[in-house]
């Protein structure tokens, strides 16, 4: 059996920074070549970054990407890397498609280029555009209709791009074309437990396609998405051969024994199930046999560590890729701002994290002491700016009471944070959790201000679990747990009036989160939620709160998606909406 040394380049690309992404490809190819690799595969849309949304429809971006890909192929050869076969994602244009009705202007395609010998020897566009969940690719791309089979050192290698793998067609076509290996560049965003689904999917497609399968995914954050990597290789029986670490850049090098290609004439006009099969022979000479190296699949993170790492990665990359060097948040001593601060310290380092305590006349003593204890444990910088005097000035100017007066305090704090952001360049973090966002339990233009919201997709009950997990992880490593126990154990309160508790306005969080799981995550109607055994009055109350708060969510800052259904692109409901869930 011919051997092939394959590298999966699990990299963190930067949307729109084509030159830096091309440099990244060259650097990875150099390392791969030094290790004797013959075929290297990069993630989806490597050169442009992913997802590029409507940038895809701009002619200037399409042309820049195409030029970048051609220059990269030439540069790889110039730098002595032309023997390596590199599969690199880029933004292409459909050949021969003119602007027309129903066809996106410029006919952009989500494509990969196979580079060898200084040239692009094959191109393939994504066949099945990803158009559910947060994916919106039918808006941006024209689908492809061809599957390429490239012969590398006597092994037939077929290509599929991310969503193509989630459908039967392309892997069935790979089987029909007798490919020995299917390589799949991906931009598959993180969701809790998605890694299990991916491994099953890869194994199923490998068995069905009767070929080994190499899956390479991005890492890093991009706006509300976090990519966890999790690149892997399975053999033709679906058995796991190698798997990368999650959330870190890695060049995963794997040796494979693969069946030799049966002689086929290139370009013979083969078709399978509506797809054209295009063959390109790059090299027929098998690699001289060598002692294969063994790879051990990387350790998996446990469920809470995985979610926590996704939050850290999302924040770190948003800050870094947008040119910020520090963050600021209001620290109330409550668990939401405390967990947010712990994530920020892990993402950026304590010297980049600034907290402000803004006591009012209703603030408890522990709101200050718990914030101070957090600062002591983590090393972040804490300042105090009291708001009572400012509130008095407002009282002189306007007469408000009740919720209006409560919200005024939250808004005074927000003005202070934004002033400090403007003055010192810190990115302001909003500290709201998913349960609060769901029910509208935050003050618009108050605690809802900010540029990024690290825990907006984390339900309150999970906020507590993650906090306990983070402290326990520190203890296991012999470090100081960052989160004061009192922040975890005290009853949640907005402290906007004397003795206020969250449970004055909201059901207990355990009940609230269980109903939200049914209504938001699983999108059930009220009757179906009640049929699961929840109290009808409770369901009606929560559903009404959720429906009324859509306008507030739309104005909330972006934050990392960790669930199946984040408040963002995963859940698009109208703000102006007369539909009510009647019981
Ligand atoms: N459909 C719509 N489209 C656009 N705007 C709409 C709107 N409906 C109301 N509005 C506007 O929104 C305003 C109401 O929203 P808002 O001003 O936020 O005020 P509101 O939602 O009435 O009150 C905020 C609630 O959040 C609680 N809170 C505040 C701060 C922190 C926490 C916490 O524990 O974390 C909780 C607070 O105790 C209170 O119950 C209206 O006065 C109106 O201007
Ligand atoms: N005294 C305060 N000083 C500084 N920031 C505050 C203060 N009170 C509230 N905030 C800010 O407003 C946000 C919302 O306030 P709130 O007190 O409701 O939440 P929390 O204390 O973080 O969590 P919990 O709901 O568990 O109390 C906080 O996360 C914090 O960023
Ligand atoms: N980029 C893509 O096509 C991603 C779609 C795919 N279903 C995933 O989430 O992994």
From TrEMBL:
Function comment: Catalyzes the ATP-dependent amidation of deamido-NAD to form NAD. Uses L-glutamine as a nitrogen source.
GO molecular function: ATP binding; glutaminase activity; NAD+ synthase (glutamine-hydrolyzing) activity; NAD+ synthase activity; nitrilase activity
Originating organism: Solicola gregarius
Full protein name: Glutamine-dependent NAD(+) synthetase
Iron is among the record's keywords: no
Annotated deamido-NAD(+) binding sites: 407, 436, 552
Pfam families, per database record: CN_hydrolase, NAD_synthase
Recorded name of the encoding gene: nadE
Reactions catalysed, as given in the entry: deamido-NAD(+) + L-glutamine + ATP + H2O = L-glutamate + AMP + diphosphate + NAD(+) + H(+)
Binding residues annotated for L-glutamine, in chain numbering: 132, 188, 194
Pathway(s) this gene product operates in, as recorded in its UniProt entry: Cofactor biosynthesis; NAD(+) biosynthesis; NAD(+) from deamido-NAD(+) (L-Gln route): step 1/1
NCBIfam families named in the record: nadE (TIGR00552), PRK13981.1 (NF010588)
């Amino acid at each position: 059996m011919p051997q092939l040394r394959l590298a999966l380049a699990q990299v963190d690309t930067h949307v729109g920074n084509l030159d830096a992404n091309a440099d990244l490809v060259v650097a990875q190819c150099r390392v791969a070549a030094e290790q004797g690799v013959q075929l290297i595969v990069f993630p989806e849309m490597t050169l442009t970054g992913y997802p590029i949304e409507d940038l895809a429809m701009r002619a200037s971006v399409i042309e820049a990407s195409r030029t970048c890909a051609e220059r990269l192929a030439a540069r790889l050869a110039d730098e002595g890397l032309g023997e390596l076969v590199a599969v690199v994602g880029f933004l292409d244009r459909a050949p021969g498609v003119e602007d027309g009705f129903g066809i996106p202007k410029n006919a952009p395609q989500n494509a990969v280029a196979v580079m060898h010998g200084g040239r692009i020897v094959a191109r393939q566009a994504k066949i099945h555009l990803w158009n559910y969940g947060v994916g919106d690719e039918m808006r941006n791309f024209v689908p492809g209709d061809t599957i390429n089979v490239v012969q590398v050192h006597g092994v037939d290698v077929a290509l599929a791009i991310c969503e193509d793998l989630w459908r039967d067609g392309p892997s069935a076509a790979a089987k029909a074309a007798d490919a020995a290996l299917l390589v799949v560049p991906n931009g598959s965003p993180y969701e809790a437990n998605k890694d299990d689904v991916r491994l099953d999917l890869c194994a199923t497609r490998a068995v069905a396609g009767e070929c080994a399968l190499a899956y390479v995914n991005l890492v890093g954050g991009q706006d509300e998405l976090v990519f966890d990597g999790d690149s892997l290789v399975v053999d033709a029986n679906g058995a796991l051969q190698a798997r990368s670490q999650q959330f870190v850049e890695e060049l995963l090098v794997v040796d494979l024994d693969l069946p030799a290609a049966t002689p086929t004439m290139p370009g013979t006009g083969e078709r399978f199930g509506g797809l054209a099969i295009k063959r390109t022979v790059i090299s027929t000479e098998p690699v001289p046999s060598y002692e294969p190296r063994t790879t051990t699949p990387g350790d998996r993170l446990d469920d809470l560590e995985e979610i926590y790492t996704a939050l850290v990665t999302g924040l770190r990359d948003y800050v870094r890729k947008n040119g910020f060097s520090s963050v600021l948040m209001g620290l109330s001593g409550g668990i939401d701002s405390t967990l947010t601060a712990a994530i920020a310290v892990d993402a950026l380092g304590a010297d980049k994290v600034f907290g402000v305590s803004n006591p009012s006349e209703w603030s408890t003593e522990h709101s200050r002491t718990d914030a101070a204890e957090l600062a002591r444990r983590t090393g972040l910088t804490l300042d105090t700016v009291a708001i009572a005097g400012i509130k008095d000035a407002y009282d002189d100017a306007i007469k408000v009471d009740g919720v209006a007066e409560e919200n005024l305090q939250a808004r005074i704090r927000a003005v202070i944070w934004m002033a400090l952001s403007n003055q010192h360049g810190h990115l302001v973090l909003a500290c709201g959790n998913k349960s609060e966002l769901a029910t509208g339990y935050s003050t618009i233009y108050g605690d809802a201000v900010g540029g990024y919201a690290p825990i907006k997709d984390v339900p309150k009950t999970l906020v507590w679990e993650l906090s306990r997990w983070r402290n326990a992880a520190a203890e296991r490593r012999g470090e100081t747990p960052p989160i004061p126990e009192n922040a975890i154990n005290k009853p949640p309160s907005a402290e906007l009036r004397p003795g206020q508790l969250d449970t004055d306005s909201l059901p207990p969080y355990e009940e609230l989160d269980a109903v939200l799981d049914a209504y938001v995550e699983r999108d059930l109607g009220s009757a179906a939620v009640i049929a699961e055994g929840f109290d009808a009055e409770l369901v009606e109350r929560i559903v009404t709160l959720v429906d009324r708060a859509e306008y507030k969510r739309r104005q909330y800052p972006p934050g990392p998606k960790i669930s199946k259904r984040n408040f963002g692109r995963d859940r698009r409901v109208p703000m102006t909406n007369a539909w009510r869930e009647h019981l």
